[in-house]
Write a structure and sequence with these properties.
Layout (H helix, E strand, L loop, with lengths): L2 H7 L4 H11 L9 H26 L4 H40 L5 H5 L8 E2 L5 E2 L1 H11 L24 H10 L5 H10 L3
Helix pairs in contact: 1-2, 3-4
Organism: Eubacterium limosum
Protein name: Phage minor structural protein GP20
Keywords: Coiled coil
Length: 194
């Protein structure tokens, strides 16, 4: 599921979705299909357990053994809810950390992902991870060599394309080099601007 679709399913407005996509830089995939399948499976288990409890409570109020079963199912529901929330939180953190490392051109994202303190990261109701930016900046300062630096400057001259150099002088030199003396070649090389 694409991030945009996920956010829309959570009831966010188009403007909020656009702001989130702008901040992340792209409409990333938030899962690879496994998470959606697991979520559906957990929701089905939860629905089945709730239906069973309702039926048992309604039909067997006086039966003590069945009341124990109801209590047991209620505990299973609590466990399922807790587990599913933890798994959803873990998936949200994995995706946010992965996106941060990709955006900042980490050389070894799997290694660096383990350096985040997940206990200090908070996933809010809208799926935003709070505290990721601060930890990420600390990580980038601590492990500078693990991130690709952006290189800036001018494009060096290329004899193939003649960029940054005087094209006509270079072309003349190539065409006429066989018929020129060493002094003439040196003079033309001196005229080229790199």
């Amino acid at each position: 599921m694409k991030l945009k679709e996920f956010l829309k399913s959570k009831g966010l407005s188009d403007e909020q979705i656009a702001d989130i996509l702008k901040a992340t830089g792209e409409d990333v995939m938030i899962d690879d299909g496994k998470a959606a399948a697991r979520t559906t499976e957990l929701e089905e288990q939860l629905k089945t357990a709730n239906d069973t409890i309702k039926g048992l409570k309604k039909d067997n109020v006086d039966n003590e053994a069945l009341q124990l079963k109801v209590t047991e199912y209620e505990e299973q529901i609590k466990t399922l809810e807790k587990d599913s929330k933890e798994k959803i939180r873990s998936m949200a953190l994995d995706n946010a950390i992965s996106g941060f490392l990709k955006e900042n051109k980490a050389k070894y994202p799997d290694l660096l992902a383990s350096k985040f303190d997940r206990d200090k990261l908070v996933v809010d109701e809208q799926g935003q991870v709070n505290g990721l930016g601060e930890q990420g900046k600390q990580l980038m300062d601590q492990y500078k060599e693990m991130f690709q630096e952006s290189i800036s400057g001018f494009t060096p001259p290329s004899p193939d394309t003649g960029s940054q150099a005087s094209g006509s002088t270079y072309e003349n030199l190539v065409k006429n080099a066989d018929n020129m003396s060493v002094e003439e070649i040196q003079a033309q090389l001196g005229e080229m601007k790199f």
